[in-house]
Each structure stands twice: as C-alpha cells, then as structure tokens.
Task: structure prediction
Amino acid sequence: MAVRVVILGGTSDGRQLAERLALDPRWAPLLSFAGRTESLKVPRAPFRVGGFGGAEGLARFLEAERCAALIDATHPFAAQISANAVRAAELTGTPFVRVECPAWQREPGDDWTHVARMSDAAEALGRVPRRVFLSVGRLEVGAFRAAPWHSYLIRAVDDFLPDLLQARVLAQRGPFDVEAELDLLARERIEVLVSKNAGTVATAAKLIAARRMRLPVIMVARPVLPPAPTVTSFEAALAWLTLLHTGSPALRGV
Ligand code: NAP
Result:
C-alpha cells in the first residue's frame, strides 16, 4: 500500500519532491498550495488548493488523509503555515520534516544592508528618491507606501495594481538567469534592490547581477520559525522519507 505523504508547497522544492514521489508507487504524495497565485503552475503530482483552518484544521486533515509523513516545503517567509505544521504534527504524532534552503550569505563585492522587517527596508531606502527594484510579494508592497518619493519596479508572479504612487509591476516567475537580470537592472536604471532572504537558487541571479553592477541590496531577514527537524533540499527530504519508510513499521498506508 502506498504511503500517504502530505507536502506543504509553494516552492520549487515542494513541487520537485511531489513530482519525484508521484513517479514511485511506494508513495502517495499530496501537494498542498495556499492558492495565493492566480497563475498556478499545475504540478505533475496530485495536489489540492486552499487553507486548512489553522493548526487544528491541518491536524484534522492529516488524520482524514491517514497521512504517514508531513513535509513543510513552504517558503522560508511563510511563517504561519510553518508554525501550524509543527503544531499539527505534534497533535497527530505525524513524522515531520521541514525543507529549508540555507539563507543567502553576503559575498565579497556585495553591498548589503540587513533589516529585520519590510517596514525597515522602506526606511533604509532613505530620503533621496531612488529607482528601486522590489522583489517582494504583493502583500508586502504596502510597506513602501511610507516612502512614496521612490520609484518602484515590483517583480511578482501575478500582475496587480500596486497601491503606490510611482510603481510598475513586472509579472514574472523564476528561475531567472544572471544575464537577463543584468539587462533588466541596467535597462530600468535600478539604483537599489530590496529582497527577502529566500535563499533559493532560482532567484539568486539578481544578487549576482547586483554584485557585478555594484548596486546596494537591502536584505530582509527571515522570520524566526519554531524549531523543527530540518533538511536543506528536496533530495534530503526524499532520503528522510526513505529512511522513515524502511526504518519505521509504524507508518500508516492509504
Ligand atoms: P503564511 O502567512 O505562512 O500562511 C497563511 C495561511 O495560508 C496559513 O495559515 C494557511 O491557512 C494558508 N497556507 C499557507 N501555505 C499553505 C499551503 N502550502 N497549503 C495550504 N494552505 C496554506 O503563508 P504566506 O506567506 O502567505 O505564503 C502562502 C504560500 O505562498 C505558501 O504556501 C508559501 O510557500 C508560498 N510562498 C510564499 C512566499 C512568501 O514570501 N511568503 C514566497 C513564495 C511562495 P490555514 O491557516 O487556513 O490553513
């Protein structure tokens, strides 16, 4: 009987893990999306869309699905669902692991300012008008209403009407390559970048481009998540699952 694995997604790690498991008859993966993006990229694996109703709702879902392993492969900034996942795993006794890629680290040639929150990033842009490249989510753009004298180029998965005086949206989904990022930053005459410290390979090219162009970057730190067993790649999550499957007779099938 295939082993039910619920994967909380929203990242390429989650997608790759679900798609890899879907190819193997030992596993019955279910990839979960929040449903935030209008242009959902449909995975080659079973999936569902929408919230669970908090940690308790997720716990009920895991029970109903007879879930044998829960994997949190959400974005490092998705703090609420990650906290819910830890709690739901505790409530149900479901084996649990978080997939979290390491944060980006400053390298020689980088001009980074570290800030704790998006509102601090808006403040760190300063009083002199600048051309800003914002690669932050749609919901975080509001923080920059506090600094309306800058001109913003916002890159987001979906197009939207930003509630900012001088702003344009570039609807694009990664991965991005360095040459294209160099071209974009030069063409748009960008003077400073604001980025969340996602740590993902797919979106790191802008930082390499900024380094080469000697552009400053305001880097927003990750939120602190509740402690949990963590691996740093979807391959490592696969290894964790395989060990769990072969090593634990307590796994429940579907
Ligand atoms: P969040 O603040 O941590 O979560 C808010 C609520 O959304 C959760 O309580 C949960 O609702 C629902 N939710 C979140 N992820 C879910 C999932 N994978 N499956 C089902 N429900 C989910 O999350 P967020 O920061 O808004 O991010 C939403 C999604 O976008 C995440 O899946 C994340 O991986 C992805 N994403 C986020 C970012 C980012 O910067 N935050 C960037 C790229 C992708 P209930 O309480 O009702 O269960």
